[in-house]
Amino acid sequence: MKPLQHKVAIVTGASSGIGRAAARLFAAQGARLVVSARREAELADLVTTIRADGGEAVSVAGDIRDEATAAALVQAAEERFGGLDIAFNNAGAIPETGPTPDLTIAGWRETLDINLTAAFLCARRQIPAMLARGGGSILFTSTFVGHTVGFPGMAAYASAKAGLIGLTQVIAAEFGAQNIRANALLCGGVDTPMGRAVADTPETLAFVSGLHALKRIAQPEEIAQAAAFLASDASSFMTGTATLVDGGVSICRT
Known about the structure:
Elements: E1 8-12, H1 17-28, E2 32-37, H2 40-52, E3 56-61, H3 67-81, E4 86-89, H4 105-133, E5 136-143, H5 155-175, E6 180-187, H6 193-198, H7 202-211, H8 220-231, E7 242-245
Parallel strand pairs: 1-2, 1-4, 2-3, 4-5, 5-6, 6-7
């Protein structure tokens, strides 16, 4: 049997990058998918691709900062597929960067809303649905930035992503006895549209790649494999973790 057979999963930020790769992998491993992002055309293409590959998926387009979107995702999972077992809260962005004194209050709040508050809004809707199902696995996409490395110019982003680790730990402690697991993926550099916006020149990309022990950045499919493991019963005794999937950037000094 496939690792995620008979499971129902939500994936946010699914229109590109890690989210798209994870949605395709989850579907290939047997899960039925509710995918979300703001871009309807890209979501429609993803659903078409998953169905062409023999999987099942529906899309819910919307802004993940809006709790109505979080509610609609859970509603779609329950109405279309009968419940919810897995939630990969992956959506994120870097709206504003720069030295800490130069960050605007608006930029700070927007960064926290997208990367932390939205994940909380999703989780608070997902947990009751998982309790009704008898348990589940909640995942958050975090980063090494703000956890093992203080990356200059990233105060708001680092704060938001570090906050996801605290949220992960509390959910794990609150609902572990009810068979809900929560884990955070701490990614290194990844070849995604957001990653390419940060490393936007060959020189910057070479510098960022060189920070990693593996001397390269990840492909989205590599992060998706880690997400699929944490989503599956293969990781049944893992909860509350900040799991580094960072190519060794946290330990590399060469």
